[in-house]
C-alpha cells in the first residue's frame, strides 16, 4: 500500500475546500429551458426573487419545493412571452413585495427606509438644542447683599 505524500494530501485538501466553497445552485436539469437566451433571463430573474422558505436565499440557490415551483413559474411565464418586468410583477402580485430580494422604492416602504435617517436627524437636532441651551444659561453674579449673606453663612460654618 502506497502512503500518500504531503503534497498529494495538500492537493486533496485544496480540491475538497474548493468543492465545499462552491455555491450549490438548486436548478435541476429538468427545469433548464432549451433556449439559452430564455434560460439566461430565467436565471437572472431567479436571482432577484427570494425563497419564501429560506428567507435570505434566492430561488435560484434554494432547494425548497416552493423555490422550485417559483423557478418553474418564472420559466413558464417567460416561454409564454412575458417580459422580465411582467414576470416580476406577476410574482409580486401573488406573493407580495417580500418576494423581492431588492425591494422597490414606493411610498409604502419609503418611510421604512427613511425612518432611521429621520430619527437620527431628530436626535441630533435635540442634542444640539439641549447643548446650546446649557451653554447659554450663564448664571448671573451675586448681588452685594447675597455675597454678604453667603460670607456670613460660610463664616458661621467655619467656627
Judged by helices, strands and strand pairing, the structural class is mainly alpha
Poorly predicted ranges = none
Distance between the termini: 102 Å
What is the gyration radius calculated from CA atoms?
A: 34 Å
Give the biggest sheet.
Answer: none
Number of helices, counting only DSSP H or I runs of 4 residues or more:
6
Per the CATH scheme, the topology name of the largest domain is Helicase, Ruva Protein, domain 3
Q: Tally the beta strands.
A: 0
- Any idea of the CATH class of the largest domain? Mainly Alpha
- The CATH architecture classification of the largest domain is Orthogonal Bundle
Helix content: 55-70%
Shape: elongated
CATH-level-4 superfamily name of the largest domain = Cytochrome C biogenesis protein
Strand content: under 5%
Q: Give the topology string: H per helix, E per strand.
A: HHHHHH
Query: How many domains, in number, for the residues?
Result: 2
Mean residue pLDDT: 82
How are the SSEs placed, and which strands pair?
Elements: H1 6-21, H2 36-48, H3 65-79, H4 84-95, H5 107-136, H6 144-158
Explain what this protein looks like in three dimensions:
The protein has helices at 6-21, 36-48, 65-79, 84-95, 107-136, 144-158. Helix 2 crosses helix 3 and helix 3 (65-79) runs antiparallel to helix 4. With 159 residues, it is an all-alpha fold. The protein folds into two domains: 6-99, Cytochrome C biogenesis protein (Helicase, Ruva Protein, domain 3), CATH 1.10.8; 107-158. It is 64% helix and 0% strand.
Tell me briefly what this model is.
The protein is mainly alpha-helical and about 160 residues long. The protein has helices spanning about 5-20, 35-50, 65-80, 85-95, 105-135, 145-159.
Amino acid at each position: 500500500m502506497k502512503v500518500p505524500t504531503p503534497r498529494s494530501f495538500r492537493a486533496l485538501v485544496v480540491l475538497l475546500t474548493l468543492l465545499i466553497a462552491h455555491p450549490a445552485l438548486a436548478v435541476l436539469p429538468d427545469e433548464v429551458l432549451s433556449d439559452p437566451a430564455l434560460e439566461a433571463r430565467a436565471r437572472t430573474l431567479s436571482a432577484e426573487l427570494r425563497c419564501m422558505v429560506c428567507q435570505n436565499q434566492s430561488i435560484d440557490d434554494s432547494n425548497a419545493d416552493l423555490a422550485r415551483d417559483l423557478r418553474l413559474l418564472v420559466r413558464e411565464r417567460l416561454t409564454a412571452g412575458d417580459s422580465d418586468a411582467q414576470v416580476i410583477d406577476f410574482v409580486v402580485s401573488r406573493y407580495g413585495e417580500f418576494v423581492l430580494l431588492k425591494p422597490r422604492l414606493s411610498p409604502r416602504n419609503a418611510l421604512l427606509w427613511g425612518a432611521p435617517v429621520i430619527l437620527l436627524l431628530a436626535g441630533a437636532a435635540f442634542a444640539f438644542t439641549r447643548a446650546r441651551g446649557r451653554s447659554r444659561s450663564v448664571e448671573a453674579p451675586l448681588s452685594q447683599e447675597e455675597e454678604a449673606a453667603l460670607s456670613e453663612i460660610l463664616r458661621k460654618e467655619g467656627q
